[in-house]
Amino acid sequence: MNKIIQYLTIIIFLSLALSVSAQSDEKAIRRGNRNYKSANYEQAIAHYKKALEIRPNNAKAQFNLGDVYYAKQSYDTAYNEFQKVLELSPDAKLKSDAVYNMGNCLLAQNKYYDAFNLYKVSLKLNPENENALYNLEFCRAHLVKSKIWVVQ
Known about the structure:
The chain has 152 residues and is mostly helical. It has helices at residues 2-37, 41-54, 59-71, 75-88, 92-108, 112-125, 130-145. Residues 16-21 have low confidence and may be disordered.
């Protein structure tokens, strides 16, 4: 009976620890979101990184970190942060959004062909992603105009 009480106590403490961890990484994300909205990007980065220290597999914090770097026009860094989301999340919609944003990073650098290919991947993951469809057609038009033929 004593062993059962010890095991239950351990389970309760572990459950509480996981709950506190989940709350604190979500709190860091909320703080990061507030800073992001007010264009306080360095503070937003710090909060998203803190959330990732607490829970390294937090795909939403990873995605938001990519958003901040994109807003700062650090496109290569943003691209890498969005790429990490693909490893962390099983959610097809979040993956589609991450690939879409990776395409946006390339589009911002006038890498139309590579962006075009990423928008295709984004649409395969989420056929309802209208932004990806719009950007895909934008890239296609630019590539055709530039006489860079696109294989469908």
